[in-house]
Write a structure and sequence with these properties.
This protein has a five-stranded mixed sheet. Strands 6-7 form a two-stranded antiparallel sheet. By secondary structure, it is α+β, with helices and mostly antiparallel strands. Helix content is 37%, strand content 15%. The structure holds iron/sulfur cluster (SF4) (2 copies) and FE2/S2 (inorganic) cluster. One iron/sulfur cluster binds next to helix 8 and helix 9.
Length: 252
Protein backbone atom coordinates (compact mmCIF):
# COMPACT_ATOMS: atom_id res chain seq x y z
CA UNK A 1 0.00 0.00 0.00
CA UNK A 2 1.25 3.52 -0.80
CA UNK A 3 2.39 5.65 2.11
CA UNK A 4 2.18 9.40 2.68
CA UNK A 5 4.11 11.56 5.08
CA UNK A 6 1.99 14.18 6.87
CA UNK A 7 3.58 17.20 8.52
CA UNK A 8 0.92 18.23 11.03
CA UNK A 9 1.18 21.29 13.25
CA UNK A 10 1.34 20.28 16.92
CA UNK A 11 1.09 22.95 19.57
CA UNK A 12 -0.94 25.75 21.07
CA UNK A 13 -1.01 29.54 20.67
CA UNK A 14 2.07 29.68 22.93
CA UNK A 15 4.08 27.81 20.32
CA UNK A 16 4.56 24.57 18.43
CA UNK A 17 5.98 22.98 15.29
CA UNK A 18 4.97 20.51 12.57
CA UNK A 19 5.50 16.84 13.43
CA UNK A 20 5.86 14.04 10.86
CA UNK A 21 3.60 11.01 10.66
CA UNK A 22 3.58 8.16 8.12
CA UNK A 23 0.15 7.04 6.97
CA UNK A 24 -0.89 4.22 4.57
CA UNK A 25 -2.99 5.62 1.74
CA UNK A 26 -6.06 3.58 0.76
CA UNK A 27 -8.10 4.28 -2.40
CA UNK A 28 -10.64 7.09 -1.91
CA UNK A 29 -9.00 8.32 1.29
CA UNK A 30 -9.36 11.99 2.21
CA UNK A 31 -7.05 14.10 4.39
CA UNK A 32 -9.44 13.80 7.34
CA UNK A 33 -9.14 9.99 7.10
CA UNK A 34 -5.37 10.36 7.30
CA UNK A 35 -5.71 12.60 10.37
CA UNK A 36 -7.98 10.01 11.98
CA UNK A 37 -5.40 7.32 11.21
CA UNK A 38 -2.77 9.38 13.03
CA UNK A 39 -5.15 9.89 15.98
CA UNK A 40 -5.92 6.18 16.11
CA UNK A 41 -2.40 4.78 15.74
CA UNK A 42 0.21 7.38 16.62
CA UNK A 43 -1.05 10.51 18.40
CA UNK A 44 -4.36 10.03 20.28
CA UNK A 45 -4.05 13.58 21.64
CA UNK A 46 -4.04 15.19 18.17
CA UNK A 47 -6.75 17.89 18.21
CA UNK A 48 -8.87 17.96 15.03
CA UNK A 49 -12.30 19.55 14.67
CA UNK A 50 -14.76 17.69 12.46
CA UNK A 51 -18.33 16.58 12.50
CA UNK A 52 -20.09 15.45 9.32
CA UNK A 53 -17.25 14.15 7.10
CA UNK A 54 -19.50 15.12 4.21
CA UNK A 55 -18.52 18.71 3.39
CA UNK A 56 -21.58 20.15 5.10
CA UNK A 57 -20.77 21.16 8.70
CA UNK A 58 -17.81 23.43 7.90
CA UNK A 59 -15.78 22.20 10.91
CA UNK A 60 -12.73 20.56 9.36
CA UNK A 61 -11.10 23.61 7.75
CA UNK A 62 -7.29 23.63 7.64
CA UNK A 63 -4.44 24.66 5.34
CA UNK A 64 -3.33 21.67 3.28
CA UNK A 65 -0.10 22.26 1.36
CA UNK A 66 -0.66 25.99 1.91
CA UNK A 67 -4.21 26.09 0.56
CA UNK A 68 -7.28 26.56 2.81
CA UNK A 69 -9.49 23.50 2.37
CA UNK A 70 -12.01 21.22 4.00
CA UNK A 71 -9.95 18.19 4.99
CA UNK A 72 -12.96 15.91 4.49
CA UNK A 73 -13.29 17.01 0.86
CA UNK A 74 -9.60 16.85 -0.04
CA UNK A 75 -8.67 13.48 -1.48
CA UNK A 76 -5.19 12.20 -0.74
CA UNK A 77 -4.71 11.15 -4.37
CA UNK A 78 -5.01 14.79 -5.50
CA UNK A 79 -1.94 15.74 -3.46
CA UNK A 80 1.67 15.04 -4.53
CA UNK A 81 2.82 11.93 -2.62
CA UNK A 82 6.54 12.33 -3.34
CA UNK A 83 6.98 14.95 -0.58
CA UNK A 84 5.45 15.52 2.86
CA UNK A 85 1.91 16.94 2.94
CA UNK A 86 1.74 19.97 5.21
CA UNK A 87 -1.40 20.35 7.35
CA UNK A 88 -1.59 23.55 9.36
CA UNK A 89 -4.40 25.29 11.28
CA UNK A 90 -6.16 28.30 9.71
CA UNK A 91 -3.74 31.22 10.02
CA UNK A 92 -6.26 34.02 10.58
CA UNK A 93 -7.67 32.63 13.82
CA UNK A 94 -5.96 32.03 17.18
CA UNK A 95 -4.85 28.43 17.70
CA UNK A 96 -6.47 26.50 20.53
CA UNK A 97 -4.58 23.24 19.99
CA UNK A 98 -2.99 21.57 16.94
CA UNK A 99 -5.47 22.04 14.05
CA UNK A 100 -8.29 23.54 16.15
CA UNK A 101 -8.65 27.32 16.03
CA UNK A 102 -10.85 29.78 17.91
CA UNK A 103 -13.35 31.09 15.36
CA UNK A 104 -15.62 32.80 17.91
CA UNK A 105 -14.83 36.27 16.48
CA UNK A 106 -17.05 35.33 13.53
CA UNK A 107 -20.06 34.87 15.78
CA UNK A 108 -19.50 38.34 17.25
CA UNK A 109 -19.58 39.82 13.74
CA UNK A 110 -22.72 37.83 12.98
CA UNK A 111 -24.51 39.47 15.92
CA UNK A 112 -24.05 42.91 14.34
CA UNK A 113 -26.29 41.97 11.39
CA UNK A 114 -30.02 42.61 11.89
CA UNK A 115 -31.98 39.52 10.82
CA UNK A 116 -34.72 39.35 8.17
CA UNK A 117 -37.45 41.95 8.77
CA UNK A 118 -40.60 41.38 6.75
CA UNK A 119 -41.53 44.36 4.60
CA UNK A 120 -44.79 45.87 5.78
CA UNK A 121 -47.82 46.09 3.53
CA UNK A 122 -46.61 44.02 0.57
CA UNK A 123 -48.06 40.88 -0.93
CA UNK A 124 -46.10 37.76 0.10
CA UNK A 125 -45.35 36.73 -3.42
CA UNK A 126 -41.84 35.87 -4.57
CA UNK A 127 -40.59 35.03 -8.06
CA UNK A 128 -38.41 32.00 -8.75
CA UNK A 129 -35.54 34.19 -10.02
CA UNK A 130 -35.52 36.05 -6.68
CA UNK A 131 -35.47 32.72 -4.82
CA UNK A 132 -32.58 31.51 -6.96
CA UNK A 133 -30.65 34.70 -6.32
CA UNK A 134 -30.73 34.45 -2.52
CA UNK A 135 -30.53 30.65 -2.45
CA UNK A 136 -26.88 30.80 -3.46
CA UNK A 137 -26.04 32.76 -0.30
CA UNK A 138 -27.92 30.28 1.90
CA UNK A 139 -25.53 27.51 0.83
CA UNK A 140 -22.82 28.87 3.16
CA UNK A 141 -21.63 26.19 5.63
CA UNK A 142 -19.64 28.64 7.80
CA UNK A 143 -16.33 26.91 7.20
CA UNK A 144 -14.65 30.35 7.41
CA UNK A 145 -12.12 29.43 4.72
CA UNK A 146 -12.99 32.71 2.98
CA UNK A 147 -12.40 34.64 6.20
CA UNK A 148 -9.09 32.81 6.63
CA UNK A 149 -7.78 33.67 3.18
CA UNK A 150 -8.94 37.31 2.99
CA UNK A 151 -5.85 39.51 3.23
CA UNK A 152 -7.75 42.24 5.12
CA UNK A 153 -7.98 39.83 8.06
CA UNK A 154 -5.02 37.53 7.37
CA UNK A 155 -2.33 40.15 6.75
CA UNK A 156 -3.83 43.40 8.01
CA UNK A 157 -5.67 42.18 11.14
CA UNK A 158 -8.69 44.47 10.57
CA UNK A 159 -10.99 42.34 12.73
CA UNK A 160 -12.30 45.47 14.50
CA UNK A 161 -13.21 47.34 11.29
CA UNK A 162 -14.02 44.58 8.79
CA UNK A 163 -16.67 41.85 8.75
CA UNK A 164 -15.18 39.61 6.07
CA UNK A 165 -16.58 37.82 3.02
CA UNK A 166 -18.70 35.28 4.93
CA UNK A 167 -20.73 38.12 6.39
CA UNK A 168 -21.05 39.98 3.11
CA UNK A 169 -22.62 36.74 1.85
CA UNK A 170 -25.03 36.77 4.80
CA UNK A 171 -25.95 40.43 4.28
CA UNK A 172 -26.41 39.83 0.53
CA UNK A 173 -28.91 37.06 1.31
CA UNK A 174 -30.93 39.52 3.38
CA UNK A 175 -30.53 42.66 1.25
CA UNK A 176 -31.49 40.89 -1.98
CA UNK A 177 -34.50 39.18 -0.45
CA UNK A 178 -37.49 40.90 -2.06
CA UNK A 179 -39.61 40.69 1.10
CA UNK A 180 -37.00 42.09 3.50
CA UNK A 181 -37.69 45.62 4.70
CA UNK A 182 -34.32 46.75 6.15
CA UNK A 183 -31.51 48.60 4.43
CA UNK A 184 -28.10 47.50 5.77
CA UNK A 185 -25.87 49.77 3.68
CA UNK A 186 -24.87 51.93 6.67
CA UNK A 187 -23.86 48.79 8.55
CA UNK A 188 -21.87 47.59 5.52
CA UNK A 189 -20.06 50.90 5.21
CA UNK A 190 -19.41 51.75 8.86
CA UNK A 191 -19.29 48.55 10.88
CA UNK A 192 -18.51 45.80 8.37
CA UNK A 193 -15.99 47.97 6.47
CA UNK A 194 -16.88 46.76 2.98
CA UNK A 195 -14.66 49.53 1.59
CA UNK A 196 -11.57 47.58 2.72
CA UNK A 197 -12.37 44.83 0.20
CA UNK A 198 -10.47 45.38 -3.03
CA UNK A 199 -12.13 42.52 -4.96
CA UNK A 200 -9.12 40.21 -5.08
CA UNK A 201 -11.52 37.22 -5.33
CA UNK A 202 -9.33 35.01 -3.08
CA UNK A 203 -12.43 34.29 -0.98
CA UNK A 204 -14.36 33.05 -4.01
CA UNK A 205 -11.51 30.74 -5.02
CA UNK A 206 -11.54 28.81 -1.73
CA UNK A 207 -15.30 28.57 -1.12
CA UNK A 208 -16.22 24.85 -1.02
CA UNK A 209 -19.84 25.70 -1.83
CA UNK A 210 -18.83 27.56 -5.01
CA UNK A 211 -20.61 30.71 -3.89
CA UNK A 212 -19.62 33.58 -6.20
CA UNK A 213 -18.79 35.69 -3.17
CA UNK A 214 -17.22 38.63 -4.97
CA UNK A 215 -19.30 38.85 -8.13
CA UNK A 216 -22.71 38.03 -6.68
CA UNK A 217 -22.49 39.33 -3.10
CA UNK A 218 -19.71 41.88 -2.56
CA UNK A 219 -19.85 43.86 -5.81
CA UNK A 220 -23.67 44.40 -5.73
CA UNK A 221 -23.41 45.38 -2.04
CA UNK A 222 -20.62 47.85 -2.79
CA UNK A 223 -22.81 49.34 -5.53
CA UNK A 224 -25.66 49.80 -3.04
CA UNK A 225 -23.31 51.55 -0.59
CA UNK A 226 -22.08 53.87 -3.34
CA UNK A 227 -25.66 54.61 -4.43
CA UNK A 228 -26.74 55.41 -0.87
CA UNK A 229 -23.75 57.43 0.34
CA UNK A 230 -21.73 58.75 -2.59
CA UNK A 231 -24.19 59.45 -5.44
CA UNK A 232 -26.23 62.57 -4.59
CA UNK A 233 -28.44 62.30 -7.69
CA UNK A 234 -29.46 58.70 -6.96
CA UNK A 235 -29.99 59.64 -3.32
CA UNK A 236 -32.37 62.40 -4.37
CA UNK A 237 -34.28 60.05 -6.71
CA UNK A 238 -34.54 57.47 -3.92
CA UNK A 239 -35.84 60.05 -1.44
CA UNK A 240 -38.56 61.14 -3.89
CA UNK A 241 -39.45 57.50 -4.68
CA UNK A 242 -39.58 56.64 -0.96
CA UNK A 243 -41.91 59.56 -0.31
CA UNK A 244 -44.33 57.98 -2.81
CA UNK A 245 -43.78 54.31 -1.98
CA UNK A 246 -41.54 53.48 1.03
CA UNK A 247 -38.85 50.88 0.30
CA UNK A 248 -36.18 49.50 2.62
CA UNK A 249 -35.41 51.52 5.74
CA UNK A 250 -32.12 51.74 7.68
CA UNK A 251 -32.18 50.01 11.11
CA UNK A 252 -32.48 52.38 14.08
S1 LIG B 1 -12.48 39.87 -2.58
FE1 LIG B 1 -12.60 41.21 -0.78
S2 LIG B 1 -13.47 39.94 0.83
FE2 LIG B 1 -12.77 38.54 -0.80
S3 LIG B 1 -10.68 37.97 -0.17
FE3 LIG B 1 -10.48 39.75 -1.54
S4 LIG B 1 -10.46 41.54 -0.17
FE4 LIG B 1 -11.26 39.80 1.03
S1 LIG C 1 -18.94 31.73 2.00
FE1 LIG C 1 -18.05 29.79 1.35
S2 LIG C 1 -15.93 29.87 2.14
FE2 LIG C 1 -17.09 31.45 3.21
S3 LIG C 1 -17.78 30.49 5.10
FE3 LIG C 1 -19.42 30.24 3.58
S4 LIG C 1 -19.05 28.26 2.62
FE4 LIG C 1 -17.17 28.82 3.70
S1 LIG D 1 -16.30 17.36 8.63
FE1 LIG D 1 -18.07 18.55 8.10
S2 LIG D 1 -17.34 19.78 6.48
FE2 LIG D 1 -15.67 18.47 6.88
Amino acid sequence: MAEAILKIFRGTREGGAPAEYRVPVAPGMVVLDALHYVQQHQAPDLAVRWNCKAGKCGSCSAEVNGRPRLTCKTRMDTLPQDKPISILPMKSFPIIKDLVTDVSWNYKVNKKIPPFQPRAGVEWKIYQEDVDRVQEFRKCIECFLCQNVCHVLREHDKQEQFGGPRFFVRVAGLEMHPLDGLNRTRLLKNELGIGFCNITKCCTEVCPEDIHITDNAIIPLKERVVDDFYDPLLGLVRNIRNAVSPSKRQPK
